[in-house]
Amino acid sequence: MTGARRARRGWFRRNTVALATLVVAIPLAGWWTTRSDYKSWYDDEPRDAVDVAAGGTSYNGATWYAASVEESPRPSRAGSDQDELPDGTTRIRVYFRLQVDNLSALDGLGGCRMHLRAPDGRIWDETQLADDYQDRPTGCTGGSDDQPSSWRGAAAPYYLKPVAGKPFETVAVFVVPSSVAGSVQPTVTWATKLPQYLAFPR
Amino acid sequence: MSRRKLLNAGLTLAVLVAIVGLYRLTPTQKDIQDPTAVKGIPGRVVHTPRFDLTVDDVRAGKKLRIPRSTPDRDSLTAFVVVDATVTANREPMHIFDVRIRSADGVTYLGANRSGLDQVDLTGTEFAPDIPVRGSFVIEMPTDKVPGATLLVMEKSMLNDLEPQVTVPLGDDPPAVEDVVSLTAASDT
Predict the structure, then answer these.
(1) Cβ pair A177:B130 closer than 8 A
(2) What ipTM did this prediction achieve?
């Protein structure tokens, strides 16, 4: 063995502890500086499903029951002019059913967003122009009606205010490609609850 | 002066030149984080992770007719209308950043005339797998169109390293009509 090689081996032996510290410190520093970015990226999208059980699941201050999903629903109003859809798409109407035990819990439900989610993770937004198919209040907090219900006539149920301890329904209407119409799953997300989202099995 | 001092001065100078040179040559943070070009050609689909875009046609006119809106908009230059088809891939999204960069390096932003965002593609929400046909409108001189490039991105800010659809619009100037009319964006 030459002198130089022996000296090099001696150098490694003298600095084993320092080198081992580097092996631990460099990945640790990388994780430490990027973890908050990673966390905010991870928390930015709905990733963790909270499945709603058939008998009801308590989440975000309300009890959620199974949602009913209807493909190509009939308009709730006669003479609808919102029938036309792009080729290869299907309209889907979802009734969400929930109950609050205390009306103040409705405040925490505001700002919810309804989506349909395909098994591969693609999502579709609610259709905005769908009055003819929306025969319940939209959103999560139910209807509000300051008028006496008699004033609304036959449409009164659609404006119904939620009552504590009694389930009520809201509606969301979607347009999705026909190829996924049979497999999409309704979901509800709140920006404050991400990455969790509420998933309704079909 | 001794030879040694001369050598030291020379070395110092060389190091200084190297420092300045390296500083000039190394890319800045902005260079590194520029959008990533995804190249395409008119008439063919350009795929990006979040949306697909096809440039169908390029038209131009001295005035712009916006559906359900009067009067026809006037311009000191011209309206270049890029007809395109857009499909989202993952989730509902909008396209907010449309521009044309001419051959001489000048960039023209998408027009923001009143009422335009009601009917053009920048005001449309795209949903996965549902193609939407419509138009982007850019106000620019038509003689700058030959050799120009259409640049389309999802977001107009905080878009470091995001894909940017880059479609060269060809070397032929578009025929300039008196009034170019816009078709409202619609799902096809």
Answers:
(1) yes
(2) 0.75
